[in-house]
């Protein structure tokens, strides 16, 4: 199963929440405040994802299974994942055609939504247009998703680049 386009990334008072939507049928959510046994290397993260995918049979509908502390898996696609994230915060779509990030005041509870290397489908774009409060770009050049996440975190950690 490969990663689907949408990655709602929300910053919460207790940490960071990352939801990976896989094949528009499965969502793996990492709850930063509860995560255990996660090391910052690709092999470890891939192992945690594999464990989560293997636990999908324990997830019933939108009810999550927790194969490891802080790792949750549910049988949800992009739409219900974005809708749930939008209920928890201000949805900010990261897109190369958005307003410059530096010109936008950081929301209190941001939920960043970005795609992988492929564009969102028409249906996904329409959903995001309805759910998004902001559409921003992180710089003048298009970046890979992993770099974009780093820039977004720096933006939040420095209060919109004003507090270092």
Helices and strands, in N-to-C order?
Answer: EEEHEEHEEHEH
Low-pLDDT residue spans:
1-13
- The 3D shape can be described as globular
State the total count of DSSP E strands.
8
Query: Structural class, from helix and strand content?
Result: alpha+beta
Q: Number of helical runs?
A: 4
The largest sheet, given as strand count, sense and whether it forms a barrel, is:
8 strands, mixed
Q: Strand share of the residues?
A: 25-35%
Helix percentage: 25-40%
Rg over CA atoms: 15 Å
Give the CA-CA distance, first to last residue: 40 Å
Q: How are the strands of the biggest sheet laid out side by side? A: 4-5-3-2-1-7-6-8
Mean pLDDT: 85
Structural account:
With 164 residues, the protein is α+β, with helices and mostly antiparallel strands. It is built from four helices and eight strands; from the N terminus they run E-E-E-H-E-E-H-E-E-H-E-H. An eight-stranded mixed sheet has the order 4-5-3-2-1-7-6-8. Helix 2 (78-88) runs parallel beside helix 3. The chain is globular. Residues 1-13 have low confidence and may be disordered.
Mind sketching the topology for me?
Elements: E1 9-12, E2 15-22, E3 26-31, H1 42-54, E4 65-68, E5 71-74, H2 78-88, E6 90-100, E7 110-113, H3 122-131, E8 134-137, H4 145-157
Helix pairs in contact: 2-3
């Amino acid at each position: 199963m490969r990663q689907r386009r949408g990655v709602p990334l929300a910053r919460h008072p207790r940490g960071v929440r990352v939801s990976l939507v896989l094949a528009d049928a499965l969502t793996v959510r990492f709850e930063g405040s509860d995560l255990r046994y996660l090391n910052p290397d690709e092999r470890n993260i891939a192992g945690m994802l594999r464990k989560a995918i293997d636990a999908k049979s324990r997830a019933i509908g939108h009810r999550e299974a927790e194969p490891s502390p802080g790792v949750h898996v549910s049988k949800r696609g992009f739409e219900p994942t974005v809708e749930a994230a939008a209920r928890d915060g201000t949805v900010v779509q990261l897109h190369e055609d958005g307003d410059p990030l530096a010109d936008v005041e950081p929301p209190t509870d941001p939920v960043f939504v970005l795609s992988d290397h492929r564009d969102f489908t028409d249906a996904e774009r329409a959903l995001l247009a309805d759910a998004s409060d902001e559409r921003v770009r992180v710089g003048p050049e298009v970046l890979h998703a992993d770099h974009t996440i780093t820039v977004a975190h720096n933006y939040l950690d420095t209060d919109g680049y004003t507090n270092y």
